[in-house]
Amino acid sequence: MSVSEDHFDLYEGIKQIYSDGFGVVYKIKRKTDGKLLVYKKISCLIEEEEISIRKEVEILSSLHHENIIELVEAFKHDNNFYIVTELAEGGTLQSFYRKKRNTGEFITEEQAWRFLKEITSGVAYLHQNRILHRDIKPQNILLTADGTTKITDLDIAKKLGTGDDFASTMVGTAMYMSPEMTTNRKQSFPADIYAVGLTIHEILTLQVPFDARSNIQLMQNKLNGKVAAEIDPSRYSQDLIDIVNSMRNVNPEQRPTAEQILVHPRLQ
């Protein structure tokens, strides 16, 4: 799917959901059938930005998986790009676990395994298509009304060419960036596994993975595997703790692949 003709008038804005460094996201209604969707409005000021947006649309349009947000269409209007996707009404995984924390609750063991399976399934599909997400984190995992997870925000995703197994651009969110990215300035599929591991670790401990007052301290804590809080073994099974810990192994070669995670007996 390429960027289509201007369809701005086909949609009615309902409310702004959030804004980030890449654009502003709105809940919208399609006038033709009343279907609720979202679009991200992205200001396009220079040619390089437009090239980047078109690459994101190209990647999104090729993806069809139950755990990846589905692209509806993309169009340009008044020098802004609009990327229209399905609506995930449950909010982000970050807001989900923070609500738990605010009420003194924890993610259950059953929920944890389900989140792990669904996020990893989406990542496995990306990797099978030689796509690195490069920004997996609780804020970029959405939940539908029935609790199904949807990986979103492929703004900085990278499609690797045949024979090209690494990306070398320093992008992503520092807290979830793999140790090899900060030391070797290159990353491959294990970097996404690391970020999924940190994401699950975070929702189980109800806090961000690392305490750090500077980027240098953050990098040191990552290289030493020094997390802010360990997963409570009195609350969660050793099976769950072990698989999450393996995913955030400092050595990328020792992390399991998405396929290896999905054959775990607890995920069958």
From TrEMBL:
SMART domains, sorted: S_TKc
Domain Protein kinase: start-end pairs: 11-267
UniProt catalytic activity: L-seryl-[protein] + ATP = O-phospho-L-seryl-[protein] + ADP + H(+); L-threonyl-[protein] + ATP = O-phospho-L-threonyl-[protein] + ADP + H(+)
PANTHER family: CAMK FAMILY PROTEIN KINASE (PTHR44899), SERINE_THREONINE-PROTEIN KINASE NEK1 (PTHR44899:SF3)
Gene3D superfamilies noted in UniProt: Transferase(Phosphotransferase) domain 1 (1.10.510.10)
Domain of life, source organism: Eukaryota
GO MF assignments: ATP binding; protein serine/threonine kinase activity
UniProt cross-references to Pfam families, sorted A to Z: Pkinase
Enzyme Commission number(s) of this protein: 2.7.11.1
Alphabetical list of InterPro entries matching this protein: Kinase-like_dom_sf (IPR011009), NEK_Ser/Thr_kinase_NIMA (IPR051131), Prot_kinase_dom (IPR000719), Ser/Thr_kinase_AS (IPR008271)
Listed name of the protein: non-specific serine/threonine protein kinase
Class in the EC hierarchy, top level: transferase
Keyword annotations: ATP-binding, Kinase, Nucleotide-binding, Serine/threonine-protein kinase, Transferase
Keyword Transcription applies: no
Record organism: Streblomastix strix
SUPFAM superfamilies for this protein: Protein kinase-like (PK-like)
